[in-house]
Amino acid sequence: MADVAERAGVSTSTVSRTLRGLSTVSPEVRARVEQAARELDFAVSRHAASLVTGRTRNVAVLVPTLSSWFMGTALSGLARVLRAAGMELTVYVIPGMAERTAFFEHLPARRNADALLVFSFDLTDEETARLDDLAMPVVYVSQHVDGRPSVYVDDVAGALHGTRHLLNLGHRRIAYVRTEGACGFSFSSQERLVGYRQALAEAGLPLDDDLVVATPAGDKRGAAEAVGRLLGLREPPTAVFAEQDEVAVAVIWTLRATRIEVPGQMSVVGFDDQPVAQWFDLTTVAQSPSRIGQEAGELALSLIDDPGAERERHLVLPTHVIPRTTTAPPPAPRAEPQLPPD
Amino acid sequence: MADVAERAGVSTSTVSRTLRGLSTVSPEVRARVEQAARELDFAVSRHAASLVTGRTRNVAVLVPTLSSWFMGTALSGLARVLRAAGMELTVYVIPGMAERTAFFEHLPARRNADALLVFSFDLTDEETARLDDLAMPVVYVSQHVDGRPSVYVDDVAGALHGTRHLLNLGHRRIAYVRTEGACGFSFSSQERLVGYRQALAEAGLPLDDDLVVATPAGDKRGAAEAVGRLLGLREPPTAVFAEQDEVAVAVIWTLRATRIEVPGQMSVVGFDDQPVAQWFDLTTVAQSPSRIGQEAGELALSLIDDPGAERERHLVLPTHVIPRTTTAPPPAPRAEPQLPPD
DNA sequence: TTGAAAGCGCTAACAA
DNA sequence: TTGTTAGCGCTTTCAA
Prior knowledge:
Two copies of one chain form a homodimer. Chain A is α/β, with parallel strands linked by helices. Chain A is built from 13 helices and twelve strands. In chain A, strand 8 (239-242), helix 11 (245-257) and strand 9 (267-272) form a beta-alpha-beta unit. The longest helix of chain A has 17 residues, at 186-202. The radius of gyration of chain A is 26 Å and the shape is elongated. Chains A and B meet through helix 4, helix 5, strand 2, helix 11 and helix 12 of A and helix 4, helix 5, strand 2, helix 11 and helix 12 of B. Chain A binds a DNA duplex through helix 2 and helix 4. Chains A, B: Residues 323-342 are annotated as: Disordered. Chains A, B: This is LacI family transcriptional regulator.
């Protein structure tokens, strides 16, 4: 910066003021400084700047992975609003327990970011408490933490509507396939199951635990086992509500391999509306991670500007059912022996 | 840090030495300092540290998007090696031309990162030159830039082997479906087409431009048009090599909707081995973005430590064909009128 | 093995 | 409107 100042024949303060766009610089001087900065390819050191301002112009995110549709899409949405605000994005990827422990022990984001967005973790109270004394706004995404700003999709309503869609088609035996082992995502998982149960209760149907099975996400083998359990029931389901599209697709795969027609003999509903849902023409509950990322980013920015505001703001985003071709009315019941035809 | 020093009854220099793991600290003092740091939840300000060391312990990446399988997986691999090295990861998402121009104009990474990884862009010479005087190592990923460190998959060989697989099955009319409009990814795109042509040339087959069609990635409609053009040829293909799995899936979708059997009447090969390839049981050329990310990260770290080394290192990663159920020998040719049977 | 002091590159308060 | 000066929180000589 001293170089720029010298070349423009001004002091470093003036260079600083010019480069930050402060209005207290005369046009001629501004022009000279900008010219000099361009010629010298000068870029302000954010480090030096934040040392004195205390603001880093950097937002940190904590994510379990980068390689999922949800995370990729959400972070793209977030990145857009941060870029527009001139903020940078630092990503902490915490795939397992060891890394998680290390992160919470050292909290490396401390003093190195202006805000932290925590995605899709099911935090312990202790971990939440650690984040509380981080001295920066923390926004919880895809989870709700009481008394802290959170952005999430209405999983309960989504599952409720998806299940209702099946009920409205006439299904009475509806299974729920949840994911297991997807530690960190268990939050949405719980909520969706609640919505499913709520729909059944509404319809006056009993909750049959045999109809709730689990499988690791995206695993053909596990899905086959889960479907196998359902098909082996005394009274098997005529429809399946899957916690995620990937699970729905695995279920459909298994059913088709067994020559069980979808939706002829079994209807399937997913949750997400990932690209794969289109390829399978899957009826699904759509959510918009990109919107989630965007809203979370905007909330974080507003908290940075005014740490008092919206401290307890919960933003609940909507979902909507997209009917496609994997749902239909249940097959006609088999002739029931005890009732003579006509 | 002053607080920690006071609490431990030492100078800030000693705290600094302790926290950086320097060996010139006596065990008792080290214990006291670590204790104090823990009690005060102290984390070093990277900003202040880098101001004096000149190293930021931060690696920047430039990516066109975060919401693709390739990027998500590659960045996960990269994040792993960076975390192990105690480096942080800053992501610049540059989805369009406007953002790209802005990035290259200001080069915000300058002085704010120790290295830059540029993913999947087809850079102009001018842009490359800009990056050259960034005063930090720049690693090019998924592209080769002469004389600069690059990490990429052997797209030519991949497409060559994929096409050969079709040739070996007996196919002679093989179409190539490329993506268009996916600006920034055009590099791999070109290379794969080269591999395809090479395979045909090897087999002594003519290059028929009618067999090369384009479609926007992941677009059902566009794929239908492209497939339509192929099916309308005087001599339609019996197999399709698709530049990416997503395109292959769209092609299969269209074919099946038209009651053209895959692989009975048309074989299809993809490139990537994304999860969707499994769901479609797609024969494909597999690459490992996670490995790419990892290697790129390691290369960047080594360049940071020793800017002289490996300055021109090109790391070319292998691919392999995964045969699944979308490829088979071509259908028996129709009876040819001019030859009497037997 | 430890401490004192200088200074990294910037911004902010104050003076001019 | 501009310049001078102090100091942000560290690391790094250099001296002890």
